[in-house]
Design brief:
Distance between the termini: 34 Å
Structural class: mainly alpha
Radius of gyration: 22 Å
Helix content: over 70%
Largest sheet: none
Strand content: under 5%
Shape: globular
Order of helices and strands: HHHHHHHHHHH
Number of helices: 11
Length: 263
Amino acid sequence: MIGKKLYLGLIIFFLYAPIIVLMVFSFNYSRSQAYWAGFSLRWYRELFTDDQIIRAIRNTLLIAVFSTLAATAIGSAAAVGISKLGRRYKAVVMSITQLPVMMPDIVTGISLRLLFIFAIRIIGAGNLGFGTLLLSHITFNVPYVILSVTPKLRQMDGNLYEAALDLGSSPFGAFVKVILPEVWPGVVTGALLAFTLSIDDFMVSFFTTGSGVENLSITIFSMARRGINPRINALSTIIFVVIMLLLFLVHKRDQHLARKNAD
């Protein structure tokens, strides 16, 4: 038992020690990563006065919010539609849905870039930028929402929807009043996953954006190419704390649902 705990402790240490070091040095007054020069919020102040980073934060949040809303709506509706298919067709469609999840990000990024460039040439107007970046985030987030909602649909009694229609409800009304409450935990999980993936994504964003439009991942990559900037430490610390808060809220929600179901 002691050996298992020691092994687990070593794994956790090697996973989180670099993040802890990064967070500690984000409060270091010196630019050096080799010695401690005193506690300071210098790099956080410089972070929020950097126009490039502020623009990247704004683009990241806008794309994350809009892509999450769109992907959640599309993915939830698609999951309901897939659940109505026959067993053979459902298996085929679910396999196709899982392909983008298993596919390397670089393949997805290059494929979307080629598609957008082809579409722009056909239309004869437009260029890579905020719109293509938003569309690419919606595209790779939809499968994750489908995979989050589908298990909840399997747990739901399929006769409830038919019963609502027999009692005079419209198809949309039955979906909102019957199906949506049953699959809501899966919808929320898919939305949180889509939001997190959108903020985290670099590879797909790198290939599908244009000049002048960057998210945080691309901005951090550009800054890191010129050397480790302490503002990156501060920015990474904020991102880590935000993600941990989201995971904490999801955990609390799951605990609440488990207690509610137990009662």
